[in-house]
Specification:
With 128 residues, the protein is of the alpha+beta class. The protein has helices at residues 6-14, 55-63, 90-101, 106-112, 115-118; strands spanning 18-22, 33-35, 38-40, 43-46, 65-70, 73-81, 122-126. A hairpin with a 2-residue loop joins strand 3 and strand 4. The longest helix has 12 residues, at 90-101. The relative contact order is 0.23. It comes from Streptomyces iconiensis.
Length: 128
């Protein structure tokens, strides 16, 4: 499985916001959406602040692939649903990463760590 380089991890995790565009069924990119991203170890994680009903998140359900833009870098990625059965503390780790990175944003932070958003936790896996 491809991994992020340290430079890529630092660049993406160091941005306050990034853009994401899931691939449509026909392989074209959907429109770009601005979202938050956090790093936990060697992984980058995203959630939908509006839970599973948000348009960009629903777009990830078709092909589980898309593209991200952050800090002048574009990268094709796979959206891998968090396996919280195999990793029971993963959501807590991602919650903590969001609290640390976005401490100045109380209301959105509460939503992104809320029960609806937590069901959308995905790991971004880079394409080789």
């Amino acid at each position: 499985m491809p991994t992020w380089s340290n430079d890529e991890l630092n660049r993406v995790a160091g941005t306050e916001e990034m853009q994401v565009a899931p691939l449509r069924q026909d392989g074209s990119l959907s429109s770009w959406r601005t979202i938050w991203v956090v790093r936990d170890g060697d992984g980058l994680y995203v959630r939908s602040v509006n839970g599973p009903t948000s348009q960009w998140y629903r777009g990830t359900r078709d092909r589980h692939e898309g593209r991200i833009r952050a800090d002048g870098m574009e990268k094709d990625v796979t959206f891998v649903d968090a396996d919280t059965d195999a990793h029971p503390t993963l959501n807590e780790q991602v919650d903590a990463a969001y609290r640390t990175k976005y401490a100045d944003y109380a209301a959105p932070l509460e939503a992104i760590n809320g029960p609806q958003a937590r069901t959308t936790t995905m790991r971004l896996v880079p394409h080789a």
